[in-house]
Amino acid sequence: MTYDKHDCDLMCERLATYLEGDLAPADLATAEQHLAECASCRGVLAELRAISAQAQSLPLLTPSRDLWSGIEARIATPVTSFDSAPAAVQRAPSRRWQYAIAAAALIAAGAGTAHLVGTRHNGAGAPPVTVAQQPATEHNDSLAATAPVTPPAITAAPRATPAPAQITGATLVSRPKREMSAARVYDNEITMLDSVVHTRRESLDPKTIAVIEQNLKIINKAILESRAALAKDPKSPLLSNQLDNVLGSKVELLRTVAFLPTQS
C-alpha cells in the first residue's frame, strides 16, 4: 500500500512515542499497520532504534568534582552563636530608658512588616493606615538625660480621603495599589535597628560586640553576594527568597542585640 507524504510525516512524528510504548491503543494499531505497509517509515524506525542502542552503550558522564559543596558554602549564612546570656544584675535607673528607646524603635520598625502584610490582605479598596512615630531625640553617650519614649500610635485614615500615599519623616503610609517588596521592608527595619544598636554599643560587653561584628560581617557578605546574583537574574524566585532569608537573619540578629542586657 502506498501512503502520501502527509501520512508518513505524521508517522515520523509518532515514532519516538512509539518506541517508548506510550501511544494510545487506537494510535498504536494505526502505527503498526502503517509500518507494516510502508518501507520508508520502517527504515526511519530502524535508524532510530540503532541510534538508541548506540546511546545506551555510551559511558555515563560525571563531573570531575562535586560542584554542590562550593555552591552551598557560598549561599549558606553561617552565624556564630552568642554565649549564654549573663545573669541579670541591678541597673541604674538611667539604663531603663535604653529599653524604652529600643522598644519604641522596634515597634516602628515592625510597622514596615505589618504594612507589607496589610497591603497583601486588604487589597486596593482598603483604607490607608498611618503609623505615626515620635520624632527622634538626640542621645548623649550615657543616655542619662533621655526622656521616656511614647510608643507610636496607630490610627486609621478616613475612608473619604483618597489622598495619595506619602512617606514623610518617620511616618509610614500604606500603599493599597502597590505592594512593598519584602527586601524593601527588611531594609527599612535594618536601618532603624542599626540606629538602636549604635546607641547601645558602648553599654555592651566588648566580647559580645566582637561576636556581633563577626556575625554582621558574615551576613553582610552574604547579602552583597545575593544582591549581585539577583541583579543578574532578577526574575529568579530562588535568588529572591535567598536574599529575603539573609536579610531576615540580619533583622533577627539586630533585634537580639537591641534587647541584650548591658554590662554591669
Structure description:
There is one protein chain. With 264 residues, this protein is mainly α. Among the domains are: 50 residues; 82 residues, no CATH class. 57% of the residues lie in helices and 3% in strands. The chain is built from 8 helices and 3 strands; from the N terminus they run αααααβββααα. Strands 2-1-3 form a 3-stranded antiparallel β-sheet, covered by helices on one side. Helix 2 crosses helix 3 and helix 7 runs antiparallel to helix 8. The longest helix has 27 residues. It is rod-shaped, with a radius of gyration of 32 Å. It starts with a helix and ends in a 6-residue tail after the last helix. 16% of the residues are buried. About 28% of the residues have low confidence.
**In terms of structural class, how would the helical and strand content be classed?**
mainly alpha
Biggest β-sheet: strands ordered side by side in the sheet: 2-1-3
Range of strand content: under 5%
- Give the total of beta strands: 3
Task: Work out the helix count.
Answer: 8
| Structural shape | rod-shaped
Nearest-integer average pLDDT? 67
Major sheet description: 3 strands, antiparallel
Q: Pick out the low-confidence regions.
A: 87-94, 113-179
- How far apart the termini lie comes to 100 Å
The portion of residues assigned to helices is 55-70%
Oligomer: single chain
